[in-house]
Specification:
Shape of chain B: globular
Largest sheet of chain A: 5 strands, mixed, barrel
Number of helices of chain B: 20
Structural class of chain B: alpha+beta
Radius of gyration of chain A: 24 Å
Order of helices and strands of chain A: HEHEEEEEEH
CATH class of the largest domain in chain A: Mainly Beta
Radius of gyration of chain B: 27 Å
Oligomer: heterodimer
Number of domains of chain A: 2
Number of strands of chain A: 7
Largest interface: A-B, 54 and 68 residues
Helix content of chain A: 25-40%
Strand order of the largest sheet of chain A: 2-4-5-7-6
Amino acid sequence: MSRRSRFVAGGVIIVAAIAYLIWSGVSQSVVYFVTPSELLAAPVPSKTYRLGGLVQPGSLKWEPKSLDLSFTLGDGKASVPVRHKGAAPDLFGEGRGAVVEGSWTKDGYFKASLILAKHSEEYKAPHDGVEPGYKELMKTLRGESK
Amino acid sequence: MIPELGYGATVAALVLALWGAAATVMSARSGSAALLRSGERAAVGAFALITACIALMLYAFLTFDFSIQYVAINTNRGTPFYYRITALWGALEGSIVLWSWMLSIYTLIVVVQYRRRQPELYPWVLSVMLGILAFFLLVMTIPAPPFERLTPIPPDGRGLNPLLQDSGMITHPVALYLGFTGFTVPFAFAMAGLIVGRTGEEWITITRRWTIIAWYFLSLGLLIGGWWSYHVLGWGGYWAWDPVENAAFMPWLTATAFLHSVMVQERRRMLKLWNLSLIILTFGLTIFGTFLTRSGIIGSVHSFTQGSIGIFFLGFLALALLGSFSLLASRMERLRAEGVLDSVVSRESMFLLNNLFLVAAAFTVFFGTVFPLLSEAVRGVKISVGAPFFNLVNIPVFLSLLFLMGVGPLIAWRRASAENLKRNFLKPVLAGFVAAAALRAVGVANGLVLTAMGLVVFVASTIALDLFRAVRARRRSGDGWSAATWGLLLRQNRRYGGFIVHLGILVVALGVAGSQAWSVQKEVTLDRGQSAELAGYHVRFDGLSASEESNHAKVTGAFTVTNRGAGGDVLHPAKKFYPQDQSPIAAVDYRLGFFEDIYVVLGDFANDGSHATIKVQVNRMVSWLWMGGFVLTLGAALAILPDARRTA
C-alpha cells in the first residue's frame, strides 16, 4: 500500500464513521411536527412528537401547588388535551399559538415535557392603557406592598 | 426630509460601489492609475454616504421620528437613551446598514494598508470588496429599505423587542458583525490571489492575519451571545443549537480549520487548494448565516424578522460560490502542492485530521440546521432535529479535536520519531490518566466528563511542558523567570498566542462538561415565608412588589437565599410587562460563583402576592465559559500583534 493510499484510506474511514454518526443521530433524534388532527388520526403512544396548535380559550388550567398545567391545543378540526408539569413559559396564553414536545399517553392526553411558545410577529398599533387584567394586577400589588 | 436624504445616500453609495468595483477591474487590466484612484475615491465616498445613513438613522431614533417605519417599530417614547441607539441594529433593516458600514470601514483599512504594499493584488481586492458592498447596498435599496415611510405617523412607536433591551445586545451584534464582515477581507485576497496567480508568503501572512482578526470578533460575538442567552432568556443555558447560533458557529469552525491548515501551507507549501476552499467556504457561510437569520426561513427564538429578502441572499450566495469555485478550478494547475506527506505520525497529518474534524463538525451543524427545511420542502413533512442530534454527533468530534489540540503543536513535522513522541507526550499522557483516575476516585462517574477532563489535563500539560522548556532555554541566556516568559510571549507571539487560545478553549471545555453534567434545577410553588431547598441552597419567598419603569411595568419578587445556613443574599427575579407585548417576560436574577451559580426565575405568582412559582437552578461551572472565553480572546489578541520575528 503506497503512502498516499494509506492516507486516503484513513480519511475514508473517518469520513464514513462521521457519516454513520450523523445518520444514526438523525434517526434517533428526529421529532415529527404534527397538528392535533394529524396526531389524533394515528396516535402512537410514547413516541416523541412536536404538537403545534392554538391554545383553546377557556381550556387553560393551572394548579400552582401541584405545578399541574393543562390546556387544549386545537387546529379548528380537532383538539388534543395536553398536560405539563410546571408553569407556562412567557409568551404562552389562551388564543395564541404554541408548540409542545412530548408524547401521547394511553390515558388519552398528550404529556408535554417542553412548551415552546410562539413569538408574535405582528405589529400592534400603539394604544392607550394596556390589558385591563394587567392594570388590576398592578393595583392589587400596589395595595399589597404599601 | 430624513427618508429622502437616507434613500438618496443609499442609492448614491450603491452607484459609487458599483463604479468603484468596475473601475478597479479596468485599472487592473489596463494599468491605469487614474481609474484606480477613481475607484479608491468611490470607496471613500461610499463609506461617507453609509456613515451619513447611520447618522440620519441615529438622529431619527433620538428625535423619535415615527414617520420612519423602522423607528416606529423599534422604539417608543419610553425607550431609554442607549437602547434608542442600539435599536439601530435591533431588526433586519438596521442590521444590514450596520453590516454595510462595517464592510465599508474594512474596505477603507484595505485601501490605507495595501495600496502601496500590494500593488498587484490591491486593485482586485478592492474590486471584490466593493462588489460585495454593492450587494448589501442593493439589499438596503430594494428588499430591506431602512428609511421606509410610515403613514399616518403614529403618536408613539411600538418599542424595541424587550428581549433585546439588555446590555449584551449593545455589544453582541457589533462583535458578531465585525466578525462576519471581517471574513470578506481574506475572501477578497483569496480571489485576488487566484486572479493574479500569487498565493505565496505575503499572501499567506495577510489572509492569516485577517482571518484571525475576524475570528477574534466572531468568537467574542459567540461568547457574548451565550452570556445574553444565559442571563436574559431565563432557561439557564447558554447554547441551544438554535439555527441562529448555528449560523454564527459554522463560519467559526471553518475559519478555525483554516487558521490551522494555513500553517501547513506556510511550512510545507501544501494544501493550497484546500486553504482557498476553506476561505471561500467561510465567506459563503457568513452569507448563508445572514440568509438563515434574516430571511425568517426558520422560526426560532432569535428570528424576529420576516421578509422577501431570502431570494436576494440565496442568489448572491449562489453567484459568489459559483464564481469563486470556478475561478479556483481554473487555477488548479498552479496550486499543486510542492511538498508531500511523509508519515502518518507527523504534524502535517495531525493538522489534516484536525481539519477533517472541524469541517465535519461544521457539516454536522449545517446538516442539522438545514435538514428540517429540506424535509419540509421536499417531502412536505415537518420535523425537527434538536440538541440531542448535535450533541450525539459533535461530542465525539469535539473530544477528538481536544486530543489533537494536545498532539498537534508538539509533534514533529514530516515524521515524528519514537524519541520525539516519548519526550513530548509521555508525561502529559500520564498526567491525563492520573487526573481522570483521581476524579474517578473522588466520585465522578460520568464517562464523558472523565474523558473530557482527562483530555483537558493532557493538553494543558503539553502546553505547560513546552512553555517550561522554552523558558528554561531562554533563562540560559541570562534572563530571570518572568523576563524569560514575557520575552517568549512577545517574541513568539503567534505560537504562544495560539497556546493561550488553546488554554481558553480548555477552560471552556471544562465549563461545558461540568455544567452539562452537574447542574441541577427544580420548579416549586412557595407561599410567602416558605422555603425550598436545592443542593444545599435554601430559597425563601419574602414577597412581591410592583414598580413602573420608563417603558415597562415590573413585578419583582424577593427571595432570600442561604447556602448551607450561610449568607442571606436577597435575589430579585421579576416579570416585566411591556405594553407593546401581549405577555410578560421574565427577568432572571442570579449570583455568579467560581464553581456554581444560583439562578432564580420567577414563573408565575398570585396577584395578592400570597404565593409564587419559581424555577431554581444551581448551575455548575458555567462561569468557566466566561473565564475561558476571556482567556481565548487575550490569546487571539496576542496572535494578532505583528510578528516580532519578522518585523525585528
